[in-house]
């Protein structure tokens, strides 16, 4: 820390209690100055020789014995004492902690060069410009002291000089940084003595680009805002570095921020701090990690920040939603809500992502050449896939909440339904979790939530799980089996598949395709949960289907399959699938749930529509059914 000593005489100021100061001398006291209740018993000559303001006050006082009352001097009794000691020529030490107060008090007392050469105002200005403003840490200290000395510090331009000094150093080339700074967040190898030697000589210490970030965290939010704004104005610091500084400040100043909570305390103060950080965020996309902005949004919600700041955060987050993790989205609901997590916030983020992608895409379509250079590109397919997977993972987490309504689950899933995905395994996992945690939902609700899933996009493992899943409606289980058969047949028979009876196709998406069976009871049966016997039968048939597939794959790998073998494999698939559906159908017929006329009608209608070759394939399959 820089300091300056003034005067050469011994300090003979003494105190008598807390409210009396006097000079230990044989000369009689001839002036009493009252500074905020503290009385100074002094002598006129040394004071009046350097202070024009005291000259005016003494001249306006009629009696020599009257006290001179001064209430408005900046810095109070301590700053006046420094000025008084300077007048007496006593030794006084100025440093970063008291120099601003002394400068403001000297200005108030009008201790100018016009009164006496080498006066206090002149000496302090020399000290500030030659030492204090050139020191990194001293500049930060005196900026903090200016807060209690307003408006004097502002009018004397001490604040602006501090801001410029700090901002200029933060923007400086790191190779020219030669002063000390605080850097505890992540020590560099060269700083902790672990830097390897290069040809036997230790490499010179490298100053990190963010060397200034931690020291600025000492500032209160109003001063911090002015420093960051000044740094931005200079335009020599990247937006990423500004973002890093804001993250460090939030972690230091918002208790519990790193844990996603806000500890009890001065809520008004923390609210102002959070809102200011939001306003200081760089405008460049990607300059601040999306995870940090989500934690900031969580804090803004808990602190009940203004709607403007919350909407701005949501807009920024939605543009980088593909960078988010599921854990980041798990924002706790307020105590007024029944659900565990704030699903509405996530719904809003996803909707803003979709709207931003669509608006950007439309803008590019209007004038592609113009917008290519002046507008952000719309989200890539990869980004949309990442967001879709993010939503699936989030749905799987919130599905555990017993108070989560089906409409909120379905609405959020539908928001990303247009995003193409190769697999729906994540969505199936979320649906299964919801069905598990909400066993009391109705058949129609089960049907509604299962419509979110495309059975054709389930992996083999997911299909195996779905067939054994007693929580799914029987219709969904049959669809899974059908599309698994199609997939296996495609692999084994070069994309050739077989027709299924109309009664089976009626269970697939799109309706019965001409089937005459349409009774209400049958629809309810297929939307019902499968029995344990059904699940066991389906599991066995799926295993047989996989066995047939593996055998066909081995033949394909050996290169020994010919056209005759392809047809035989196709018939084998048809046989297995027909067994599955026949077994299920016969179970329901035995229970009296399906009339014989409906079944025969469906079968006859199907055979009429079938080509001779396909009819023969079905007849073989049915004749071999036990």
Automatic annotation (TrEMBL):
* Pathway where it operates: Protein modification; protein ubiquitination
Looking at the record, the residues that make up the BTB domain are 29-96
Instruction: Provide ranges: composition bias, Polar residues.
Output: 593-613
Mind listing the UniProt keywords for this protein, alphabetically? Ubl conjugation pathway
* Domain NPH3 residues, every copy: 210-487
Q: Which Pfam families match?
A: BTB, NPH3
Q: Where is this region: Disordered?
A: 503-529, 588-626
Q: Which family does it belong to?
A: Belongs to the NPH3 family.
Report the protein name in the record.
Phototropic-responsive NPH3 family protein
According to its UniProt entry, this protein's organism is Populus deltoides
